[in-house]
Write a structure and sequence with these properties.
One of its GO terms (molecular function) is metal ion binding. It is an enzyme of class 1 (oxidoreductase). With 701 residues, the protein is an alpha/beta fold. It contains 24 helices and 26 strands. The protein has a seven-stranded mixed sheet, with helices on both faces. A six-stranded mixed β-barrel has the order 21-25-22-24-23-26. Helix 3 packs across helix 21. The longest helix is centred in the first third of the chain and has 19 residues. It is globular. The structure holds iron/sulfur cluster.
């Protein structure tokens, strides 16, 4: 009998609702869920091709130890024994989990509880570190909490939408569809796209500002200085709800217009036009994504943007606010449970003894890690230099996706004990594992995810678990039990984990923290099965879900005030004679991350069939490169070979290469092998943009 199941797309942070239909013959088809508030029935190319990615080719179906098939008990016993031995001999910080925004919140919750509460280390970090940790750090500096102040609807209600470091058309396509439709209905709405490339998103822009890489702090500092000088700030909002305005304006005013022009690569006329548009438009939303976050100055960029919204009081009201767009389906859920090495569960702060004590008592844990753990780049450095001796990688492929990927691969190869939980048997990372554990994929998983607008949705199973694959949370709980923590890991279902997570969010909270979903603390199996998408917070009692935060202050710093942060323009990370081009990396429309799923769909691969480098015609001519030539790209860290795409959409001096391909899909195409392991000093997020490289026509040896 055919059945339809409501679930959520596993790709980007828009978090679209999907209806999966399983026919009498077992064939699966998908369509958008018209009732889901993220997409109202829309899907993008990736979402519509989900049914084409569900075959079992290449699936990891049984646990393996050293390349041979093993039973679950033997594999879990070995993982528990090796982790316990490392902890006994070298201390809790000798082990680490590297997890993923692909995990469901329930998986993340158990991973975090095991590492921070019972192993007693905070060495759990996530590939979301590569995606949005600068936004988290910027939110916490400004608001005292990691709170996204608005909702998707604000993009439709705005009179001006500024998209900076965001190729919305390709990276958050359904949100782009919503924005395009809103602009078609209200042609007076203005859109500004700030990006070194003239992307597809720029096609609907009234103004495209081809900013120099890392010019964002200068641009938004210049905007703040302009707003202050022209009296276009909200004095009441500033004095009632914020602090730091004078210092932020002083820092922002250090560059005059000609100097701003040099720092941003924009003309004085372009700067004036943008500043004037922002100044004279009441309803402004500024969306930002990886072009802002993936920078050595990512957190400062985020705060430079937020400063402008705080100074004008344009936050928390319909059609207004800064808006961070998360890359992954559950980057936000990971933040909620403390999946980052510097955070605790339920948006609590690992560096606050009160919060550590609350979590410890709630969990009944012996002790909770008392200091932040290693963030992604530092974690793999610690693997490389032998400080980490046992590493568990879940649902991610760092040998392709981490900066300095060759060095990361060497570190993993040399690590004494590596566990990989995945759905794919032969990823670039999995082939170096001592133990492989088969996990559930989309359509088999059961749990929740949170999208960029704080909306929690269910991922529901509609396919049987293949082979011996089991949920990630179950694998973690079984290892925790075998390590001697049986009483803390008795969860029999994701519903029980979600209820515990919800209860912790309300535990001794009383409004001191933003994240509170304790209305669901008593949820049972049937209610969890029927859970409809909702935006947090949903505290216990009658308070409704909150669409927006901060229209009337009530920030989460102890004094209730937001902070405008004085940020300085970073020194340019320039190209040089040896490496004369600036490389930016990013996504393409139809592939996802390292292509382990989207690579299965011929339709999706038909959009862009191979890795490429976008290069400006004059740069191509200067380097002796013609369209469709093979090009060697080199940095001090590594090399890749990709196809030339000569286009004036790319600014001169800059190159763009997609991040998806790996050595399985094309020879020598792991672009992150070129990227330096440079990180933002506040967030620890790697700078995957603005990398000096050289390019030459490929010559076969
Ligand atoms: Fe999935 Fe994102 Fe596309 Fe929505 S926009 S269907 S969440 S990939």
């Amino acid at each position: 009998m055919a059945q339809e199941v409501k679930t959520t797309c596993p790709y980007c942070g828009v978090g679209c609702g999907v209806i999966a239909r399983v026919g009498d013959d077992g064939a699966v088809s998908v369509k958008g869920d018209p009732e889901h508030p993220a997409n109202f029935g829309r899907l993008c190319s990736k979402g519509s091709a989900l049914a084409e990615t569900l075959d079992l080719d290449g699936r990891l179906l049984h646990p393996e130890i050293g390349g041979r098939r093993a039973g679950w008990s033997e594999a879990l016993d070995l993982v528990a024994e090796r982790f316990s031995r490392s902890i006994a001999e070298h201390g809790p910080d000798s082990v680490a989990f590297y997890v993923s925004g692909q995990l469901l919140t329930e998986d993340y919750y158990i991973a975090n509880k095991l590492m921070k509460g019972f192993i007693g280390s905070a060495n759990i970090d996530t590939n979301s570190r590569l995606c949005m940790s600068s936004s988290v750090a910027g939110h916490r500096r400004a608001f005292g909490s990691d709170t996204v102040p608005g909702a998707y609807e604000d993009l439709e209600l705005a009179e001006l939408v500024v998209l900076t470091g965001s190729n919305l058309a390709w990276c958050h396509p359904v949100l782009y569809q919503r924005l395009s439709a809103a602009k078609a209905n209200r042609p007076e709405m203005k859109i500004v796209v700030i990006d070194p490339r003239r992307t597809m998103t720029a096609d609907i822009a009234d103004m495209h500002l081809a900013i120099a890489p890392d010019g964002d702090v200068a641009l938004f500092n210049g905007l703040l200085a302009h707003l202050a000088a022209s009296g276009a700030v909200d004095r009441n909002y500033i004095s009632n709800y914020t602090s730091g305005f004078d210092e932020a304006v002083a820092a922002a005013s250090r560059l005059d217009l000609p100097a701003l022009s040099t720092a941003t690569g924009l003309t004085v006329a372009q700067l004036r036009a943008f500043f004037r548009l922002f100044e004279t438009t009441e309803k402004v939303v500024t969306c930002y994504s990886q072009g802002v976050n993936q920078s050595a100055a990512g957190t400062d960029k985020v705060n430079a943007i937020i400063n402008c919204h705080l100074a004008t009081g344009r936050i928390g009201r319909p059609g207004m606010g800064p808006f961070s767009l998360t890359g992954q389906p559950n980057a936000m859920g990971g933040r909620e449970v403390g999946g980052l090495a510097n955070m605790l569960a339920a948006h609590m702060d690992i560096e606050k003894s009160l919060h550590r004590d609350q979590v410890r008592r709630f969990w009944g844990a012996p002790s909770v890690a008392s200091k932040p753990g290693l963030k992604a780049v530092d974690m793999f450095r610690a693997v490389a230099d032998g400080r980490i001796k046992a590493l568990w990688i879940m649902a991610t492929n760092p040998v392709v996706s981490m900066p300095d990927a060759d060095a990361v691969e060497a570190a993993i190869k040399a690590c004494p004990f590596v566990v990989v939980s995945d759905i794919v048997r032969d990823t670039d990372t999995a082939r170096h594992a001592h133990v492989l554990l088969p996990s559930l994929g989309w359509g088999e998983k059961d749990g929740t995810v949170t999208n960029s607008e704080r909306r929690i949705s269910r991922q529901r199973p509609f396919l049987a678990a293949p082979g011996e694959a089991r949920p990630d949370w179950w694998q973690l709980a079984e290892v925790g039990r075998r390590m001697g923590f049986a009483a803390a890991f008795t969860h029999g279902s994701p519903a029980v984990i979600f209820a515990e997570h919800a209860a912790l969010s309300g535990f001794e909270n009383e409004g001191r923290r933003d994240f509170d979903i304790s209305a669901h603390a008593e949820i049972d199996g049937p209610a969890y099965d029927g859970l409809r998408p909702f935006q947090w917070p949903q505290p216990q009692g009658s308070a409704p879900q909150k669409k927006r935060f901060f229209a009337e202050g009530a920030f989460y710093h102890p004094d209730g005030r937001a902070r405008l942060v004085a940020v300085e323009v970073p020194r340019p990370r320039s190209a040089n004679d040896a490496f004369p081009f600036t490389l930016n990396t990013g996504r393409v429309r139809d592939h996802w991350h390292t292509m382990t799923r989207t690579g299965k769909s011929a339709r999706l691969s038909g959009h862009l069939a191979e890795p490429f480098v976008e290069i400006h015609p004059r740069d191509a001519q200067g380097a002796g490169i013609s369209d469709a030539d093979l090009v060697t790209l080199e940095s001090p860290h590594g090399a890749a070979i990709v196809r030339a795409l000569v286009t004036d959409r790319q600014a001169e001096g800059n190159l763009f290469v997609p991040m998806h391909w790996n050595d399985q899909f094309a020879s020598k195409a792991r672009i992150d092998a070129l990227v330096a392991p440079v990180t933002d000093p506040v967030s620890g997020q790697p700078a995957s943009k603005n990398m000096p490289v050289r390019a030459s026509r490929f010559a076969a040896a």
